[in-house]
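LysR family transcriptional regulator
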Amino acid sequence: MLDVRKLRLLWELAYRGTIAAVAEALAYTPSAVSQQLTALERETGVMLLERTGRRVTLTSAAHTLVAHTEAVLAILQQASTDLDTAGGTLTGMLRIGGFPSAVATILTPALISLGTDHPHLDLTVTELDPAAVPDALRGEHLDIALIQEYDYVPIATDPSLGTEPLLVEPVHLAAPNATTLDTCRDRYWITGTLGTLCHTLTVSACRAAGFTPRIRHLVDDFGAVLALVAAGHGVALVPELGTTAKPAGVVLNPLPIRRRTHLAYRRGTESHPSIDAARSALRAAANACRFEP
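Structure:
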């Protein structure tokens, strides 16, 4: 019988890429992860990892085993959900993740609703960039979270996660005056920090318009971005949720670009009572925003 804990390590390695990343995510030492994976190879009787110096890659047999592990973990999650469903009152910790511009507009109303309807739930919120959400969910640091994609930055499919649409909002070109994307090719730009979806969106949208943006500032907080626009330090792409604190002197020029927010959770947990309650509360909060697709 294969050890689920060892299979989980191989599954994590398939997603995280390095033994060091797996060790950090699961609070192991790299040596312990390596030893467990070596033991799994002995148990299966096939080579699972190809080692080149300090790097490892998964063999075709390992990828087959990872696919089976995906199904096993989802079944175990569903089993845990079924047991918790029989408990009645919702208790325990529920960890919710969201991106900054959704904290006040979606997460806070949802928390108020959850706290009123299920007072025995221990609710925690973590603010993080959507790019970090899949790892946080797989590592069980979060139970449910908001992820997003833009028209130019689609979400990569992750078979370990379940997702569902939540909200569609327009993206604006924030500038000191009425303008278009094309006429801003010679202006300075303000984007999110490297690696964020906002940064990737700005670069991709500008290149689609035929130019590469001259980026002057890297700022993740949309309030600060709009303040810089108002001060004449550049232009920026800002989704609707990020415009709630628009200062005087900033014009929001609508673009044919949309940001789409989704709920995400580990596959097999969607019917867990606390996850289902969170889904309902988050959907109600998002519906109250009433953005046109």
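The first strand starts at residue 49 and ends at 52.
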